[in-house]
Specification:
15 strands, alpha+beta
Length: about 400
């Protein structure tokens, strides 16, 4: 019976080439656009969930009320991390980070090329144990334990050292020049050069990571690079992001209480409230997620319109198939058999359209990535959750498209 239905479907496909092409192409375009938007939505909701301990990682944030104005910030002094750990036994580890962009980096000695680079991240040694960024070469226990140590990504290793092993070699980092007005006169202070010993190669952050870097340098290097900010030895507002790994997820409220106890308001009379934001919520910031849900709604509407278009075109040909249906009834076919036949044809057309939509997706990916300003790796397409959604779209499309014709 199934072979018979399949033969009829293929025969209708080949006999009515123009109709079939219009119907299949319309459904394919609708499915491909919908799947691309669903891929983007899944990618947005996957941010930072690849970290094994993400449920226990929280970022310190603050809301300041002064003079009727609300100011939100998430940077604290270098002393805040240890003070919070000492006051709260539920804090398993703390990570301080500071990112610099548009910095001058070059090899020390030999090849004297320098480049302006972004995403130079300073981080505590606990960075490698709290987050799930893989160290491809080097010792994670000592890689960031001393000042002037640095990890580089494979792309940076290739850029600066070619095929050579970069571990043990030295990179030079040039601080920016700045104006000094301390003596009542504007004096140009030249930038300082700092040498960093490469202790390892770290995996590049995935596309769904809030934390980004090309280089990861030891945080205590800031004692000489950022002398004023690093030397402030009281817990309070400052220049560094703070992440805390808790022993259990339920301790987040206790962490907020601790932050409000150890961090004092910088100005008397200022109302301050500190909170702990889960790592998985950081990508969306303080805004809601309505825009992502709107995208998801658009994807479903596009798919639904494509299916309605398919059903309308199929129904418009019902008169031309009346003779076929009549002959089948005469020879004994029941309503159920005819319904199964039309359902089978719809599933066949839908599956064929789905295969074409996958090809269209590949062709549209570069333009789509440029539009949403993110490059989603192909490995993301093979994740079980996304494959399950793709299968659900295929099955639902086949069933919906066959309901009315059947």
């Amino acid at each position: 019976m199934f072979q018979n239905y399949l033969k009829i479907a293929i025969r209708n496909l080949t006999r009515n080439k123009v109709f079939s092409a219009i119907n299949i192409l319309g459904l394919s375009i609708g499915m491909s656009v919908s799947l691309l938007i669903i891929l983007f939505v899944f990618h947005e909701f996957s941010y930072d969930r690849f970290h094994e301990k993400q449920a226990r990682i929280f970022k310190a944030k603050g809301a300041l009320q002064y003079g009727g104005q609300a100011v939100y910030m998430d940077v604290f002094s270098a002393a805040t991390a240890q003070a919070t750990k000492n006051a709260n036994p539920q804090v398993e580890a703390a990570v301080r980070t500071s990112e610099l962009d548009h910095v001058l980096v070059g090899r020390a000695g030999g090849k004297n090329e320098t480049f302006y680079e972004d995403k130079l991240l300073f981080a505590d040694p606990s960075f490698l144990s709290v987050f799930s960024f893989k160290l491809l070469a080097g010792n994670p226990k000592t890689a960031l334990s001393e000042p002037n140590k640095i990890l580089i990504t494979p792309a940076m290793a290739k850029k600066y050292f070619g095929n050579q092993n970069p571990i043990g070699k030295t990179l030079a980092y040039q601080t920016k020049s700045h104006m000094d007005f301390s003596n009542g006169k504007a004096v140009q202070i030249p930038g300082e050069k700092h040498l960093f010993n490469i202790t390892g190669i770290i995996q590049s952050p995935p596309s769904n990571s809030t934390l980004e870097y090309n280089f990861v340098a030891s945080f205590n290097s800031l004692a000489t690079i950022d002398k004023h900010g690093y030397s402030f030895n009281k817990p309070g507002l400052g220049s560094y992001l703070h992440y805390f790994l808790l022993k259990n997820e339920a301790s987040a409220k206790k962490l907020e209480t601790t932050l409000n106890q150890v961090i004092v308001a910088p100005i008397e009379g200022m109302k301050v409230k500190f909170s702990a934001a889960p790592l998985s919520t950081l990508h969306f910031g303080d805004s809601n997620q309505q825009l992502v849900y709107i995208f998801l709604g658009i994807a479903l509407i596009i798919l639904l319109l494509a299916l309605i278009n398919y059903m309308s075109l199929t129904t418009s040909r019902s008169a031309t198939r009346a003779k076929e249906v009549g002959v089948r009834k005469v020879v004994g076919a029941g309503r159920g058999q005819l319904a199964r036949q039309f359902f089978g044809e719809s599933l066949f057309f839908t599956f064929f359209s789905f295969l074409i939509s996958l090809v269209l997706m590949q062709l549209m990916l570069p333009t789509f990535y440029a539009l949403v300003q993110v490059k989603i790796p192909l490995s993301f397409l093979w994740q079980p959750h996304f494959l399950l959604v793709v299968f659900a779209v295929l099955l639902t499309s086949g069933l919906i498209s066959g309901i009315y014709p059947a």
